[in-house]
Design brief:
Two copies of one chain form a homodimer. Chain A starts with 9 loop residues before the first helix and ends with a strand. Chain A is of the alpha/beta class. Chain A has four domains: 161 residues, Molybdenum Cofactor Biosythetic Enzyme, Chain A (3-Layer(aba) Sandwich); 47 residues, Molybdopterin biosynthesis moea protein, domain 2 (Alpha-Beta Complex), CATH 3.90.105; 91 residues, Molybdopterin biosynthesis moeA protein, domain 3 (Beta Complex); 72 residues, Beta-clip, CATH 2.40.340. Chain A has a six-stranded mixed β-sheet, sandwiched between helices. In chain A, strands 7-4-6-5-8 form a five-stranded mixed β-sheet, with no helix packed on it. Chain A has a five-stranded mixed barrel with strand order 21-24-23-25-27. Chain A has seven helices and 27 strands. In chain A, helix 3 runs parallel beside helix 6 and helix 4 packs across helix 5. Chains A and B meet through helix 2, strand 13, strand 14, helix 3 and helix 5 of A and helix 2, strand 13, strand 14, helix 3 and helix 5 of B.
Chain lengths: 412, 412
């Protein structure tokens, strides 16, 4: 099957592909402390308010705010110190009018108190008995956190489909949520094909090259939150590729096949993918460089992606399509933008109108920000990517970018 | 020991701290396929050129370029097809004048050939015998990769101190480098202190709070490439904290202590750190919000960092200081900028001149790019960070940022 004649842009291709996919992996329960990078499978609700009790945010005196009204440097208010609130314990007493109590940051406000008068640490140790001179009025709730001010009982604290960062782990721990339901890591099968491809451990004969794609792609899958599974190197023969692809499709949530580099090998991949299940190939050929001969398919509900054999094309296109499918499998509803660095382009980059180009660039730090310098050398060399810090996108609606223009460098 | 009176900016504090540190972890040898995110401990040299042989970058005919000179649609050159080059094998013949050979993308050029005439796949299967009509001249090396064009024998392909991304794994595999020397993951000891702090599994009594910092910080350490090690919760007593801190310092490459929240608990941390080894505390107090009471110390050659007890301050400051120390321990010589997203601020943010502020913001996607909306609520609530996508920095030289201004949102 030849590539489709009317090529979609990467954005159109992704939209078309995603509309044909409606899959999501099932949830599993894991420990919160091991949840970094995982994705919530259900909204998480607070089973208690946070803070659980009113707390001081400073070192000072717990007071009734009304007792301090009008106090200033020349006309202080005088309050009777009735005690010290120990850290980690309830105060054990109630504050009456004209009374105050010593309280440290994080301490629990006694009943009756509704504000804290801050004392600068520079003033030395705080007196613990006698009358306390208050030189400044405080408002109700000043220097305190109310119970439930961070989170109220029953509030949704983390939505479903959210990737867990250090902050979320902290928030869950604060609420005593030590286990949570996350999406299982999607299994992603990676198949390398090509008669010329040998494993990296082998010394290639003339004409042979070592397998690169299986390893760049499994690393990318790992970064994206998937569980990669390598199915080895398959020769460019329909029967061999069929068998391996069928196994991978059965065992995995997503299958990625890197084609041999020739047109016939790519057609073979498309044919094998169409045999895997219905509806089969949805997009064949995308108006993008590198990566034009990309195949996007859905076989019996599972995504199958045919990537170009060239290692640079395969990695760039995997970023555009494999990564979003993994996000979708994980149930990430609103994927965050790829992190990028703004930089100034060091030279003119012509491109073909109607085609989207991705160009590898190196970042150079200067006093006035970063420069983006396109990496020299032919674009289909793997080390051109190793020398690069990121990629810049030339959209289909322009015929290139100009030297000095600000660009967004998507970090590799 | 009270906080120093003259507070350094975060940038000054980091410079001072880094100058006092000269430590780096030792290397270890690991498998390349498991090296994602690790950092090279030595420069990596190519033990062979890449490609190892001259290759075609297209499907077409291998030719001597000179035989095609002058050829065009009206006056084609005719070359004798002498064979087909199988994928993954040496051609087994030499190309003489006026000859050509069928070659596929990635195929090895025969001796004598110095260019490839591309044939569009749309033209159907290529003839494999007879005379071939060449309609266009090609230059020497056109549509080919020379041996060594990506990498020459002995060339340094990856410098020391570089974090391994999918592209580097691919490049190493292409060269048959299946093992490499990387920096061991630095062990980072994390100690929580505070009389009010209980483990997340415990239902807190009134006045108690669950430990958050131990878990946010170990997650951050993991993200940064360190190996976290939790030393539990220690009460605010010099003897207890001393013993635990000494053990952590002996066992780890970097120790992070989160102080109790009160001024006295913070002073206790500084005192304990000074007892751990020389020179002890180097920076005590930084002109930053949140995180003013930060302690940076070097004890017998190892870094010790005292973080504020407040979970938000602890996490923000860990990003500014713990992360760079881990990078330094890993031998990363040129840390890449933190990934960020450019966005437009939704409201005015006043700040105090001379102080650096970090403000948590949420990103809102619009047709004209992202908006950065400061997260409401008091800044010292852990869920304010969970609701945020990133942080924006207000530098010490300004008195705030204006609504509508473009800001760089450093992703959390």
């Amino acid at each position: 099957m030849p590539e489709f004649l009317k090529l979609l842009s990467p954005t159109e291709a992704l939209t078309t592909f995603m509309q044909a996919l409606s899959i999501q992996v099932e949830p599993e329960v894991i420990e919160t402390k091991a949840a970094l990078g995982r994705v919530t499978a259900a909204p998480i609700l607070a089973r208690e308010p946070l803070p659980a009790f009113p707390r001081s945010t400073v070192d000072g005196y717990a007071v009734r705010a009304a007792d301090t009204y009008g106090a200033n440097e020349t006309l202080p208010a005088y309050l009777t110190l009735v005690g010290e609130i120990p850290m980690g314990k309830a105060p054990g007493f109630r504050l009456d009018a004209s009374q105050c109590a010593l309280i440290l940051t994080g301490g629990m406000l006694p009943l009756g108190a509704d504000a804290v008068v801050m004392v600068e640490p520079a003033r030395g140790p705080l007196p613990v008995s006698g009358d306390i001179e208050i030189l400044r009025a405080v408002g109700v709730a000043e220097n305190t956190l109310k119970a439930g001010e961070d989170v109220t009982l029953g509030e949704q604290v983390i939505p479903a489909g959210k990737r867990i960062r250090p902050a979320e782990i902290g928030g869950l721990m604060a609420l005593g949520i030590t286990h949570l339901e996350v999406a299982r890591c999607p299994k992603v099968g990676v198949i390398s094909s090509g008669d010329e491809v040998v494993p990296p451990t082998v010394v290639p004969e003339p004409g042979q090259v070592r397998d690169v794609n299986a390893y760049t792609l499994t690393a990318l899958v790992e970064e994206a939150g998937g569980q990669p599974c390598r199915y080895g190197i398959v020769p460019d023969r329909a029967d061999s590729l069929n068998i391996v692809a069928q196994t991978a499709l059965r065992e995995c949530d997503l299958v990625v096949i890197t084609a041999g580099s020739s047109a016939s090998a790519r057609d073979l991949t498309a044919q094998v993918i169409n045999n895997l299940g219905t509806p089969g190939v949805i997009v064949h050929g995308i108006n993008v460089r590198p990566g034009k001969p990309t195949i996007l398919a859905v076989c019996n509900g599972k995504a199958v992606i045919g990537l170009p054999g060239n290692p640079v094309s395969a990695l760039v296109i995997a970023g555009l399509f494999v990564r979003p499918v993994i996000s979708a499998l994980l149930g990430i509803t609103q994927p965050k933008p790829l992190p990028s660095i703004p930089a100034r382009l060091t030279l003119n980059l012509p491109s073909q109108a109607g085609r989207e180009d991705w160009v590898a660039v190196r970042l150079i730090s200067t006093n006035s920000g970063y420069l983006a310098e396109p990496v020299f050398g032919k674009s289909n060399l793997i080390f051109s990517l190793c020398r690069a810090d990121g990629l810049i996108r030339i959209t289909p609606d322009v015929t290139g970018l100009s030297k000095g223009e600000m660009v967004e460098v998507k970090l590799l």
